[in-house]
Every structure is written in structure tokens, then in C-alpha cells.
From TrEMBL:
Organism encoding this protein: Blastopirellula retiformator
Taxonomic path: Bacteria, Pseudomonadati, Planctomycetota, Planctomycetia, Pirellulales
Compositional bias ranges of the Basic and acidic residues kind: 153-165, 174-217
Sections of the chain in a coiled coil: 489-516
Protein name: Caspase domain protein
Span list, region Disordered: 147-218
Length: 561
């Protein structure tokens, strides 16, 4: 249930700005997880970092509506790691050896964000956007930041096909059980048809039409408080209520966030064509991959996620206050949103492949095969870079230099480098699996020892177990620490941590190469767009690039206070 106080709070905040008619930027932040144990402290700190970013840019006096977690509910809604808890505390040891260990390292509290106007729930979000739609005009801008969790949707065609397959399976279940002969006949007939189709394809290859890309994920999800969710289509429907010619800029850092690139299409669905609204967005990763960042770790210096790099590029300062050089790839004296995105692609040590709305347009309307004269990732690098923007050139040349790739067929070099690193990582992963198997055996032996000596420890809720922990905790603890199998368990743990560090480093390199491949493909798709799409789409692409190239602030940065 949505609390009325949350809605009233939002309305009261909105009312403070209702009388303002002067054109201005307006900020909307939505964040937090669906439940407390999935709402990590890093999400809170992302919002606070965004607030500091706006202050550093002199934008903290602008309207900033924040919807987070459970709003004004005083119940704990945030998870964080308890760094003061001793790793050799008897409860921690028992959880590790006998279980269950879920959540043993975490504590919970209410969020500590100034200026939150309501809960991150669909009804509150919808009401907020409705109020903005009534007040804003074409001279305003809305900057929307989402820091939370996301889910992956499915193409409508896939859902329909699966439903039809399920119905067919139900209808044919009896036939499959009783008529094996018919199945063999059908198989042979199917094989013959496959051969016929192969011959037909050979004959038709000369007249082959451009391949239409598989329909992208249409309805990726944002998970909201109280286990609610809003999909791309839900968000697009509400954003459609805003003035069509008023720019909306989204920065979304949840898993599968790239699916929200579909907000540039009518109803959030590429098959409906491009929307009339001026919208663009920057996303932590592509539509079908999880993103880095959600962590109960309280050490903000260790955060590695899209927001950290994107906002430090805009301000020249990291989230912990260290100075960095602001990217200015076109040498105009300022850092645009697109330059901040490119900086993130170049420097982020994360598992992400960042993407943006223009990437979504290209991957629907353009292609790299199916017609003569189309470029691909394997086209000469000189041809791909001939018309590249400063950002594109910086990313492609920067990532190439990182891995000492200089060949004309840059795509081939990237593929070879990815394969080599994946082979190395597979060996490490195999070693980790072997050690994990050994570790499980050691853990079983420790658990056996404990439950032979203290049978009640088999149940965490047994009253005798509670007494043992309270009155004989030190004895139980020593029995674990001095056990040979436990010593072996910890040795294997250390060995696995060392292997994991090597594997993670390899994985970060693999991801950077995947980013390079993605940008090579993007260049090819952009060059091919005039061949594949009409003038209307080409114009929309140019306008989208212009939107993505905006400055967050057009005046020199001002440090608040």
C-alpha cells in the first residue's frame, strides 16, 4: 500500500516551485531496492553523491525531487555490512560451518538522505511525473537519475512463441507417448525439408535482403519499493505526458538498464517507430547484462559503478574528493554528457558495457551485413574512424592502445584478444571450482564434528543451541578454530581469493575489449545508417546525438558554500 503521506510530501515539495515560470533544469532521482535486504547502502550513497555533484556544479538550488526506498516510513529499509563484527565470532563461525549463513554479515537501518519527498513506488512516481507535466514547458529540462535494481524483459514475440509451444506440447503429449513411428517419419521429413531449404538459400543468396535484427528486449524492469516494478513501457507512458519538445535526460545505473534506451520509441517499443519526444539517456550497461555497483560495503572509496565515473567526469572530482582531469575530447573547454559517458567507457573498472539511446536507435535501424557496401567491425580501422566524433575516436584509440592493438582489422584483433583472455580465465575458474569442492568437504567434516559433540547445534533455533552459544561459546569457538579441517578450509579460502583476484583482473580486461568491440560496431552501424534507413530516421539520429552532447551546466562550475 502506498502511504498518503508520501504523496502529500511530494505535492508539498512540488508546490514550492509551482509559481516559478522561468526556464530551468529540474532533477528527479528515484532509488533504493524492492525490500530492505535488497536495498544496499551504496544506493543511498549514490543519491548523496549526486547531491554533492549538483552542489559542485552550482545546480543545488534547482528543484530536485527525490523518491527513495520506503519514503517517510521509519522502519529499516537499508542494508549495510557490519565491519565491527568479528570474523571469528562464534555465531559467524557456526553460520559458516553449519549454516544458514545468509545475511550473517549485514545490519539494517533507515536511509539517511536529505530532502526525500516520498517512497520509490509506482503510484508516487506517477503522481510526481503528472505534477511535473503540468508545470514544465519546452524551455525546461528534466534530468532523471535512477539508482536501484533492474530486471530483464523478453521480446513479445518470444513470449508468444513460448505460449504457443506450451499449448502445442499439451495437445500433442499423448501422440508423443504412443506413436514413435510418426516421430521418426516427421524427423526424416524435417531433414529432407532442411536440405531443400539449404539449396533454396544458395539460389537466393544473390538476391538476399538485409537481415532484420532480432527484436530487442522490449520491457526491461525497474524494481521498486515493496516489491513493485515499472517496465520500460510504464515509464515511457508517463514520460509521454511531459511536453514533447522539452528535453528529458536519463541516467540509469541498474542491471539491464540499456533496455531503457527504448524510451526513444513510441510506447517504449521499437516496432512502433520513434517517439516525438526529445529524450535521451545514458545507461550503465547493455540490455542483457547485469551491472556493477549494488553493495552493502560501507567503504565508498571502493565503489566501482557507472555513477562514480560519470559524475566525476562532470565535476573533476571523485566521490571521495580526489581531483581528476575532466574529459574535454572536443577541446571546447567543457565536459558534455556524452564526454562523461565516453570517459566512463574508457576508465571504469567494472563489468559494465555502458550504452546510450543513440546505440539503441542504430541497433534497430541499421545493420552490418545483408547489403553490399556495409561496414562491419572487421572493416579497415581507417574507414571506421574517418568520420568519427572526438568521443568515438578517443574511446576506440584509447582502448586499442591499452591492449596494444594497431592492426587495420581491429575487430579481428579484438576477437582474438578476447578469446585468449577467456581461455586464461577458464583455467582459473576451473582451479577455483576444484578448490571449492575440496573446501566443501572440509566444511562437512567440521559440521560433523560439531554436531557429534553438540547435537543441538544442528538447529539454529534449538533452545539448547542458544544456551551453548551464550554460556559455552568460547569452547565451541576453540573447537572450530583448532580443528584440522577448519585450518584446511581457511587455507583453501585464501588460495581461492588469490585466484579470484587474478580472474577478476582478466574479466575487467575482457570487458574493456568487449566495450571496444561494441564501439567499433557502433561506428559501422552509424556509417551504414544512410544505406539502411530513410531520411527521417537519419535526422532523428542526428538530433539524438545533439541531445546526448548537451552540457549539464552551461556556466563555469561553482562550488556551493
Amino acid at each position: 500500500m502506498v502511504r498518503l503521506s508520501s504523496i502529500f510530501s511530494v505535492c508539498a515539495t512540488v508546490a514550492l516551485f509551482a509559481s516559478t515560470t522561468e526556464a530551468a533544469d529540474h532533477f528527479l532521482t528515484v532509488g533504493g531496492g524492492p525490500i530492505a535486504k535488497s536495498s544496499q547502502i551504496s544506493l543511498e550513497k549514490n543519491v548523496q553523491y549526486f547531491q554533492r555533484t549538483l552542489a559542485r556544479l552550482g545546480l543545488d538550488k534547482h528543484e530536485h525531487l527525490i523518491l527513495f526506498g520506503d519514503g517517510d516510513n521509519p522502519q529499516p529499509d537499508l542494508q549495510y555490512e557490519d565491519v565491527d563484527r568479528d570474523a571469528e565470532d562464534v555465531r559467524t563461525l557456526l553460520a559458516e560451518m553449519i549454516g544458514p549463513s545468509n545475511g550473517i554479515r549485514f545490519n539494517y537501518r533507515n536511509f539517511e538522505i536529505d530532502g526525500v519527498g516520498g517512497a520509490a513506488e509506482p503510484e508516487v512516481i506517477e503522481k510526481t511525473l503528472e505534477d511535473l507535466a503540468q508545470r514544465l514547458n519546452k524551455d525546461d529540462r528534466l534530468i532523471f537519475y535512477f539508482t536501484g535494481h533492474g530486471g530483464k524483459g523478453k521480446p513479445e514475440t518470444e513470449v508468444r512463441v513460448k505460449k504457443e509451444e506450451k499449448e502445442d506440447d499439451a495437445e500433442n503429449k499423448d501422440e508423443e507417448k504412443t506413436d514413435d513411428g510418426k516421430q521418426e517419419d516427421a524427423k526424416e521429413e524435417g531433414d529432407e525439408k532442411k536440405d531443400e531449404k539449404k539449396d533454396e538459400k544458395k539460389d537466393e543468396k544473390k538476391d538476399e535482403k538485409p537481415k532484420k535484427r532480432e527484436k530487442p528486449l522490449v520491457d526491461n524492469i525497474t524494481h521498486l519499493w515493496n516489491s513493485n516494478k515499472m517496465q520500460v513501457t510504464d515509464w515511457t507512458e508517463k514520460l509521454d505526458e511531459l511536453p514533447a519538445d522539452m528535453p528529458v535526460i536519463a541516467v540509469m545505473v541498474q542491471c539491464f538498464s540499456g533496455g531503457f534506451g527504448n524510451m526513444i520509441f513510441k510506447g517504449g517499443d521499437p516496432e512502433n517507430g520513434l517517439a516525438e519526444h526529445a529524450r535521451c539517456g545514458f545507461f550503465s550497461t547493455v540490455p542483457d547484462r547485469v551491472a556493477a555497483g549494488c553493495t552493502p560495503n560501507i567503504e565508498e572509496a571502493e565503489y566501482r559503478e557507472y555513477s562514480s565515473y560519470f559524475y566525476e567526469a562532470l565535476t573533476g572530482e571523485t566521490r571521495t574528493g580526489n581531483s581528476v582531469d575532466k574529459p574535454d575530447y572536443d577541446a571546447d573547454g567543457q565536459c558534455s554528457l556524452l564526454e562523461a559517458h565516453a570517459y566512463t567507457v574508457l576508465t571504469a573498472d567494472t563489468i559494465d558495457i555502458p550504452t546510450r539511446t543513440s546505440d539503441a536507435l542504430l541497433r534497430y535501424y541499421s545493420a552490418t551485413e545483408g547489403k553490399d557496401g556495409l561496414l562491419s567491425t572487421h572493416s579497415p580501422i581507417a574507414a571506421l574512424l574517418a568520420t568519427a566524433s572526438p568521443c568515438e575516436r578517443e574511446v576506440i584509440e584509447g582502448l586499442s592502445a591499452r591492449f596494444e592493438l594497431t592492426g587495420a582489422d581491429r575487430g579481428k584483433q579484438v576477437d582474438e584478444a578476447i578469446k585468449r583472455l577467456r581461455d586464461e580465465k577458464k583455467k582459473i575458474d576451473d582451479d577455483i571450482r576444484g578448490k571449492r569442492s575440496e573446501q566443501r568437504k572440509s566444511k562437512v567434516e567440521v559440521a560433523k564434528m560439531l554436531q557429534v559433540r553438540w547435537p543441538s547445534l544442528g538447529s539454529a533455533w534449538h533452545p539448547e543451541a542458544a544456551r551453548l552459544i551464550a554460556e559455552e561459546g568460547d569452547v565451541v569457538k576453540q573447537a572450530i578454530l583448532e580443528n584440522d579441517d577448519y585450518v584446511k578450509f581457511k587455507e583453501l579460502d585464501a588460495e581461492m581469493e588469490e585466484l579470484k583476484e587474478k580472474g577478476e583482473k582478466l574479466n575487467l580486461d575482457i570487458v574493456k575489449l568487449e566495450r571496444l568491440k561494441y564501439w567499433l560496431e557502433t561506428r559501422a552501424l552509424a556509417i551504414n545508417l544512410p544505406i539502411m534507413a530513410d531520411e527521417k530516421v537519419q535526422k532523428a539520429y542526428a538530433e539524438l546525438i545533439e541531445l546526448e552532447s548537451q552540457q549539464l551546466v552551461t556556466t563555469p562550475p561553482v562550488v556551493a558554500g
